[in-house]
Amino acid sequence: MEDKNFYMVSAEQIQRLLEEAKQVRLQAYAPYSGYQVGAALLTKSGRIYGGCNIENASYGAAICAERVAVVRAIAAGETDFVAMAVVADSPEPGSPCGICRQFLAEFAPELPLIMANLDGKVRKGSLDEYLPYAFNKDYFRDEEAN
Ligand SMILES: [Zn+2]
């Protein structure tokens, strides 16, 4: 189960993603929580888009590292995602929040996720294992069919 959907991600790509996530984490703007997160998203073109969390004095306006990475990829015209790494300085490997899982599921419901902390603890899994029965366009009633 751990390696579900990882057949298309090489060990070298995973290493690159973890390095990129660790690097971009240093750009995090987290003056309120002090919790810095880095995310790295590999797309089909081979490019990696990094993202860091960005907090705000209006707490609800904050955005997570994972969504920043996705937003950057989408704005560059890329919608085919291969894998994402998330790195945080936490006892357990950084884990995407529910909003980010939903955001990712829109584009890659079975995205391979590599989660890690700074101590090198790594956890791998497929997004559909972390967000089963994700809400998606299939839930909209197709009026044409009725
Ligand atoms: Zn999030």
Any guess at the CATH architecture?
3-Layer(aba) Sandwich
Total domain units: 1
Each distinct ligand:
zinc ion
Please give the CATH class: Alpha Beta
> CATH topology, what is it called?
Cytidine Deaminase, domain 2
Strand order of the largest sheet: 2-1-3-4-5
Q: Span from first to last CA?
A: 39 Å
Any idea what the radius of gyration is? 15 Å
| Beta-strand proportion | 15-25%
Instruction: Give helix and strand order, one letter per element, not per position.
Output: HEEHEHEEH
CATH superfamily: Cytidine Deaminase, domain 2
The major pleated sheet works out as:
5 strands, mixed
Structural class designation? alpha+beta
Number of separate helices? 4
Q: What is the overall pLDDT average?
A: 95
Q: What does the overall shape look like?
A: globular
